[in-house]
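Sample pair:
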Amino acid sequence: MPGPFQNKYPLLAALALSALLALACSDRPRSNPFDPRNPDHEQRLAGFNALAGNNEVLLYWDPLDYEDVKGMQVERVTVGNTDTTVISDSVLALDNTSFRDPQAKNGTTYEYRLRLLLKDSEERPVTENDRATPGPSYPWVSNLDRTAVTRLTPDFRDERYDMEYSFNFVQDIQVRPDNSEIWVLDAVTAKIYRFYFDGSYVPDQGNLGQTAAFRFNTFNHALWIASWALNSTVFRLSRAGELEVSYRTDVFPTWIELDYKYDGAWVATDENRMLYLESNGAIREITHSAFISPEKVVSGISANSRAWVLDYDAKAIFHLTIDDVDWNLKIFSNPQDIAANDDATVCWVADMDADIVYEIDDLKNIRAQVHNLGHPTDLFWDRLDQSLYVTGGDGTISCLQSGGTVLWQTHLNNHPGQIVVQDFN
């Protein structure tokens, strides 16, 4: 039966009980920063990091050697769902600093955290959440000054591996069509460097000579490669490495793009002309009065014979048919890069100074202007998910859909430059 003190003064009774409970556990050490009663705790991250993979998430954290902690559990919440799932089968010992979630599904966003089990207490403090979205695509990016290349997680939130090499200036990054290697062209050494999926250096590099530009054929895996020497020659090598045809161009090639319809190639140059290389070894010259240095050319992988050219010095883009310039557009303040969709009916232009990405169709219509992308420098069209990746000079990475919709943005402290995506679907 309750006493008169509890009936008459319920608030005082509650306060007294609270004080007694506080005294009962006041002698418990409160040294760890996750303790809600630790007056010195400033953050609860503990280096906790969720790294997205392909149908998995890898979790890492700093050692949690606090004397009042007896173990921990890993919790996962699916974004958009309020249910919390404990995914560690048992209590993890304090010497654990990693955990793998093999049940994570590609395309689903999860939030993870550690829940700490304290000695002689029912309190269960947690770390801050970290978010990850697994996927089958692995982005490779150079840093902004083009001296290093890093592999990111599929959700572009974290760095995963650095390539074991310091470059002078990365001119191009390409994934070998069989997904076995990543090739990086250094503009200063004019050399291609080859790396495995984990960023390690391929021991047997082979000898590809002094290279000015190269391009893989997505379907038959042929390699088009341009010599850096005077009177530059472009070679087409079969998948087995056998020479199929060569073209003496007498220009300095800066970029190669393939014409999948006729098995030819466009060659951009640092002169006021371009070349079209026919499959039989013939060379056609493409000129235009507005050309100054048409140094980059892009196209699609569908059966077409259209291409887009960026002339940096002219601050203009040009739309090409197989042997002629269809039209040109000069509205940009400082264009840095271009990309095209699968059938080359749409081109995107990154204008760094204006902080705009333009979307332009093959009829010269400006379909969209996307602002506030961190002063865009580099573009990559991902054929797997039909989206455009944009890297900005301030470290921003954006994902755009056709029509100008921004799907998401993230930020890297190590400011990214050129980007290419390795797909494992």
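The two ends are 70 Å apart (CA to CA).
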